[in-house]
Amino acid sequence: MFSKRTSPAPFRALLLPVVVVVVVASVALPAGAQFDLRQQLVIQDFFISRSCAGCSQGQTDGPSGLGTLFTAAGGSLGKDASTLLLCDYGGGGSSVRLVNKSGIFTVAGSQTTRGNQNGPAATALFNIPRAVVLEDGALYVADSANNLVREISNGIVTSFITEGLLGPSYIKPYNRPNGAHDLFVSDTGKSRIIFAPIQKQTFITVFITGFQPDVLQISEKSRLMFAICNSTKILAINMQGATTPRDYWQVGNADCMGYQSSLMLTTDEDKLLYYGVLKGIPSIMSLPTTKTKKEATKICPDVLLQWPHGPIVSLVNINKHAFYVVTSSNVYIVHDGSYHPTVTPTPPVTPTPTPEVTPTPPVTPTPTPEVTPTPPVTPSPTITIHRGFAVAAFSARSLPIEDPRLMHELLSWVMKDVGIAFESTDFFAVFPPDREVLVPGDVNVSTWNNLTVLFNFDHTIVITEYYTPEGMSSEEGQARLFASPWYWTRKFLDSLRETVTWKDLEAFCMVKCVEHCETMTFHKSECVGYVRPPVCNDVCVGAVVSSVVLGATGIALVALMVGSSANLRSAVILVPPM
């Protein structure tokens, strides 16, 4: 019935260490220059996940080329610049992982299971962790699908912020000038940034609201917070003064930003780096942080270097001359000629003197009996990776299905809301067969958008279908879509209804159906969140009240008529004598 699309192989087939030199120009620079666009930059492999075409594989520990990083998120430095901390929520598991020159290792959580369980790090469970930081000897984890911030200390996992959050996506510690030590959290599901003091009995305070935040960076020099806003913009937020921000403004011109993901403040705090795509070319971009509030909104980014290794999920600063680049499954170092990784030398081993041994007389060897070879052991099956299947159906009368251009724009907002609901961009829309006419007219939406649709039998319901992120069940994926507020989709449709052409569009409705969407006809009672109106509405109540008033008036008039003196006299006259 539907054309199901299989997921692509998540790993790049590259096992050997590779160094790529990106020559921007060959102009010498003074010592200490930081990521100047004229420098020669080098992309060096740090950790490359094992690639095995056709294998079912998930998270595995091991050296580069053998271990596997499945779906990375939220990188930060470990105890020194040679250690990188990451979250990994791919392959059905959810874990906190450490990457260094020796390979990749699981610090806490499970490589194959998701859940919510405190206790020893080896048995604790997380559910789609999105960010991890090391602060004062403890790890703090944004455990997104559990709506918690977790703490890992002395090998034990506990819950640090236990309530009030919805889908936290990023955390950033900050030492305020007044000595307060806070943990800032992107509470994305509630469209706000909050902070909590790093102490045993913590509590949360709202810092700013009004947008969906993601990655956070904080400049201690300028006391500005830089935050990703609604997945597309960078905001500068003034942190001086009271606990709530005085003002904020956009950094960069939205028309030339090309923002895709990640955000990193350089060591000198004078530049912001991010991953973007301009004119179809993926690159690491650079924006200055020193512009005035008025100038900041007009600037366009510089291209630091073009990026050839796939979408970036995290950029992590090392020092003035180098930074980590994390893709979904690999880690690289970008550095200039001044950077030389420090390798801790292995201390020489003092040989132990061998004592003199008195030779023993030779022993006649006993013949070794022939041993029957042990049959080979069937290897344990590797981790099976699966994607669930979910449906989002809508009332056709609430969508501009007669206009392919508007449908294209609408479906882009739908995809954004689906990603927010799944808390991941690792999902796929299911493409109906190419022969299907997807919207009225002769334009196939699939030729210029990443989502196409189906109709039910009488064209009153529009159906979209998705493969969930790897490891997310169909049940969980469907529940997330039903629970979604569809914020961006509603916002776009509301703007259409304000125009004369589309003022008659009906209110947005997600239809609560999964298996029978194509065979049912639309009725508003099938909408998610539908509340049945009372049996007697306002008009009905008014009619009842009016009837009661009229009835009471009629009774009063009859009583007055009967009780008048003339009527009494007539009644006496008409009564026959006994």
TrEMBL record:
<protein>
    <submittedName>
        <fullName>Flagellum adhesion protein 1</fullName>
    </submittedName>
</protein>
<feature type="region of interest" description="Disordered">
    <location>
        <begin position="345"/>
        <end position="377"/>
    </location>
</feature>
<dbReference type="InterPro" id="IPR011042">
    <property type="entry name" value="6-blade_b-propeller_TolB-like"/>
</dbReference>
